Amino acid sequence: MIARMAEPPHTPPPTDAARVVAAHFRYYDLVMAAFVAILLLSNVLGAGKVARVALPGIGDWPFGAGILFFPVSYIIGDVLTEVYGYAHARRVIWVGFAATVFMAAMAWVVVALPPAPDWGNQAAYEAVFGQVPRIVFASMCAFWAGEFVNSYVLARMKVMTEGRHLWMRTIGSTIAGQGVDSLIFYPLAFLGAPGWTPHLVVVVLFTQWALKTGWEAVLTPLTYLVVGWLKRVEGVDVYDRDTNFTPFRARL
To answer: What are phi and psi of 60, to 5 degrees?
Structure first.
C-alpha cells in the first residue's frame, strides 16, 4: 500500500542546497523546537519505564515506553532533510545534541544537591531523574551517529531517485539510522551489565530496531502530509547535489 502512494502534490521546483542558505523560512524554527522537545521528553518520560503489551499467541511482551515517541524525532529529521536539506537538518541535530548534554548535566547537578531536611521525596526524585553515566553516554553517541546517518542516507537517496518515492527514502533512511543508533546504544549501554547477557542485548537490539522502523512505516502517510504542506508554504524543495556532508561543518 505504501508503494502506491502518490508523491506530495503541488511541490515547488527542485532547488539546490546552495540557493537556500540565506533563505528565511516560516516554520523551520518551529520544526526545530518540535524535534528538540520530543527528543528531551522521550529521554525524560519514556526512557525510565518498561511497559508491556499482550500479543496474541505470545503473551506479555515488555518494551521501553520511550519507543512510542522517540521515533517521531526521526520522522521530524526526515521532514527537515527532505524539505530544507541536509545542512539545515545538521544544525537541528547539533541543537538537539547540545540540549541533551545540558539536560544530562542539569539532572546530575539537581539530583546531587542536598535536599532540605523536611523534603521527603529525594529517593523518588533520584529514581525518576537519576542518570546512569554509562547509559547517558551511550544514548548521546547513538543519537548523534544515528541522526546523521539518517539525514545523509535520505539526502543521497533523494538525489539518486530524483525526488521520487518518498516512502522509500524515509523508511530506507530510518532502517540505516535506527540501525546505527541501536548497534551503538545497546552494546555500549548494557553489554556486560548485571542481568544483561550478550544474547539478551542482541534480542533487545533487533526488537527495538524492528519496532522503530515499523513505527516509521506506519506514520508514512502523516510524513507525506507534513512534507507536502511544508514544501508548499515554504516554497522550497532542496536537493543536496553539491552539499558538504561532514557533520562538523558549523555554517549552513
So the answer is: -65, 135
